[in-house]
UniProtKB/TrEMBL annotation:
Taxon lineage: Bacteria, Bacillati, Bacillota, Bacilli, Bacillales
Organism from which the protein derives: Macrococcus psychrotolerans
Signal peptide: none
Keywords noted in UniProt: Membrane, Transmembrane, Transmembrane helix
Name of the protein in question: DUF2232 domain-containing protein
Keyword Transmembrane carried by entry: yes
Pfam families: DUF2232 (PF09991)
Amino acid sequence: MNIDIRKTIVTSIIMLLATIIIHFVPGLFLIIAPFLLIPAVTLYYHSKESYYVMSFVILIAVIFASIFTMQIMLSVIFGGYIVGQLLKEKASKERILYILTVFYTVFSLIAIIILQMAGVIPKMADIFAPATDAYYNLLMAEVEKGTVTKTYADLFLTSMDALVLQIPGLLILFLFILSLIQISITFPFVRKFKVSTPNFRPLYMWRIPKVVLYLYFLTLFIALFITDTDVVLLGIVTNFKYVLEWVIFIQGLSLFSFFIKVKRTHPVLNILIYIFAFIFSPVTQIFGMIDMILNLKSNIKRK
């Protein structure tokens, strides 16, 4: 076995210190998290065996930590493994980005569902229920006074329900940004430790694997046979669909970026195109799907 004792001990100490800090001051997670992949990826890249030893040490340590700390450190351990392996395979930077984002998202959503089932954390609807009920009762009181219509009160409640449904999407956006920050910070640092890292290709050159589209269609098909009583499966499928939609959205952005690059459109028009892409994200996703199927980029002629 090729175990580097010194690197294993140093990395284990760093990860243990991070575990202790997050356990006692959870809020510092936002500051520490972007840097945690640096020691993990460096160790895995140079010695898998050393990484496994370090991971075992951290797994033992997090048993005695809070559930939140456990989730964070487990995600770092698996995330370091994924990024390190992809670097060994000479994967592109954008591929590493969306694979890491998908992993973080699936890991987080499944963890949330399990914790909700165990009663450790409340459901999102339960978190917002007190505020929603309070505002709704106030509105109903105004309805009785005649100052507010019943339609307006019902519209407010519907809007609150829609807001709750958007939370998984906002979580995915946060995890995408976190992954982007982690990679942007990690790669320059690990290069100093003789780790070969790729550079980002321009957005217009990005190409999402077609298997993502197949998984999306499979998810939609499975969703047809799930009832509201299948809470766990419904939560997993719904949230996984959110993940895939964001990935397909990126392909749509890549298509628009390619169009802008090839046609050399005016900067004002470029801004309007991106604003349109984000405001009408379902349309962008449709363009992303079509591009993944028909390769629309090949049909865009240079100006």
